[in-house]
């Protein structure tokens, strides 16, 4: 059964019965400190905050309620624990209390001094500012007589989201076995494959399998492509570059895409990105690639070698399209001194300053 925890100050006793009723209607188990349904251990080191953290961890859903008072443990401990644990939760606030907050907030906008206000109003402003302005959470107002209706509606929304995610997981599981046979993928399957590919939390092996399937079918929308090029998973980003010509099947290629990809390579600390990018761009659109590669940072000797090899591979096409001058300029960049030599020179100089260089060794 689902476990739902009611969090708030002692005045949440005003809504406790309605809370228990609604949770019971959902087939759940209500948790609330006033009814004793919280986790606790009585010992010489007992701590209410630890009890609250343990109960939040055990709960499936937390319902934070502001009636009039602000519970310190609720907003200093329980909400933080829920956020860190990834627990789904609601924030409900009595409508007249919320209106009081709006009035106070407009009367004492930051950085106004709140010390002139009573402690309860200072706590109210601080708590709701933290909820809405710092944490960007949504507080839902309720009227005294309809708390049960508001809670039922908001819990239903959470369940709807949960069912949607369960449905998405089931679709992914049904699609994964088909990724090895891209020809069998329907348009719906391809949308699921794209969702798998761009999901930074998904298993990278599944993301790569989805990428290969999408490349085989030549279908990926532009937003997804840009997301994959910026992926924090190195293997996924590299594969996206390798398969760029298939993932972006539209021809002619927009030069802006080439410029964007070169900018991604320049910003990357992974030398594998520019090394993979060079031959891919030249295969996609030779004139546009030569123009874009003028902007590629040439600090990596491996990238220079690949660029020289790729240009030579396209020698006939370069001559046929009259691109000799542009190609020659890129080749000259390939032959320029690399920063590798520069850092080696600085390294040798530093070694000498430390007294371990060749000159020092000869002196010894």
Please sum up the structure shown:
63% of the residues lie in helices and 7% in strands. By secondary structure, the chain is α/β, with parallel strands linked by helices. The longest helix has 29 residues, at 147-175.
Describe what you observe in this structure.
This protein starts with a strand and ends with a helix. Helix 12 (255-267) runs parallel beside helix 14 (286-293), helix 13 (272-284) packs antiparallel against helix 14 and helix 13 (272-284) runs parallel beside helix 15. The mean pLDDT is 90. It is built from 19 helices and 5 strands. The chain has helices spanning 13-25, 48-58, 72-85, 95-107, 119-134, 147-175, 187-198, 204-217, 222-229, 234-242, 244-247, 255-267, 272-284, 286-293, 301-313, 315-320, 324-335, 339-353, 358-363, and strands at residues 3-7, 29-32, 61-66, 89-94, 140-142.
Strands, count = 5
End-to-end gap: 80 Å
Helix content: 55-70%
Q: Poorly predicted ranges (pLDDT <50, ≥5 residues)?
A: none
Quaternary state of the chains: single chain
* Radius of gyration over C-alpha positions, nearest whole angstrom: 31 Å
Structural class: alpha/beta
Give the DSSP E fraction (strand runs of 2 or more residues). 5-15%
For the biggest sheet, the summary is: 5 strands, parallel
On the 0 to 100 scale, the average pLDDT is: 90
Number of helices: 19
Order of SSEs, N→C?
A: EHEHEHEHHEHHHHHHHHHHHHHH
Instruction: Tell me, briefly, the overall form.
Output: elongated
State the strand order across the main sheet. Answer: 2-1-3-4-5
């Amino acid at each position: 059964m689902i476990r739902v925890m009611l969090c708030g100050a002692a005045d949440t006793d005003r809504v406790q019965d309605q809370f228990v009723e609604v949770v019971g209607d959902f087939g759940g188990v209500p948790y609330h400190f006033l009814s004793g349904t919280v986790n606790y251990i009585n010992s010489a080191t007992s701590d209410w905050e630890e009890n609250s953290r343990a109960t939040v961890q055990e709960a499936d859903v937390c319902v934070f309620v502001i009636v009039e008072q602000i519970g310190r443990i609720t907003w200093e401990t329980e909400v933080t624990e829920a956020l860190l644990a990834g627990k789904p939760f609601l924030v409900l606030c009595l409508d007249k209390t919320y209106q009081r907050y709006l009035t106070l907030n407009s009367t004492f906008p930051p950085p106004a001094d709140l010390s002139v206000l009573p402690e309860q109003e200072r706590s109210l402003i601080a708590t709701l500012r933290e909820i809405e302005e710092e944490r960007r959470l949504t507080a839902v107002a309720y009227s005294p007589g309809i708390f049960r209706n508001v809670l039922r509606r908001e819990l239903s929304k959470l369940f709807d989201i949960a069912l949607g995610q369960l449905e998405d997981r089931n679709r992914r599981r049904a699609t994964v076995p088909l990724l090895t046979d891209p020809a069998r993928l329907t348009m719906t399957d391809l949308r699921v494959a794209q969702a798998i590919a761009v999901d930074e939390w998904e298993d990278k092996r599944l993301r790569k399998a989805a990428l290969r399937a999408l490349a085989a079918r030549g279908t990926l929308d532009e937003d997804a492509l840009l997301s994959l090029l910026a992926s924090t998973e190195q293997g996924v980003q590299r594969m996206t570059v390798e398969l760029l010509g298939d993932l972006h099947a539209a021809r002619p290629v927009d030069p802006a895409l080439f410029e964007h990809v070169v900018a991604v390579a320049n910003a990357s600390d992974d030398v594998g990105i520019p090394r993979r990018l060079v031959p891919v761009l030249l295969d996609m659109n030779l004139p546009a690639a030569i123009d874009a590669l003028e902007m590629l940072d040439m600090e990596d000797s491996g990238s220079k070698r690949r660029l020289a090899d790729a240009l030579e591979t396209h020698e006939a096409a370069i001559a046929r399209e009259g691109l000799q001058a542009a190609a020659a300029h890129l080749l000259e960049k390939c032959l320029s001194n690399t920063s590798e030599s520069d850092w080696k020179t600085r390294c040798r100089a530093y070694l000498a300053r430390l007294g371990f260089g060749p000159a020092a060794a000869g002196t010894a």
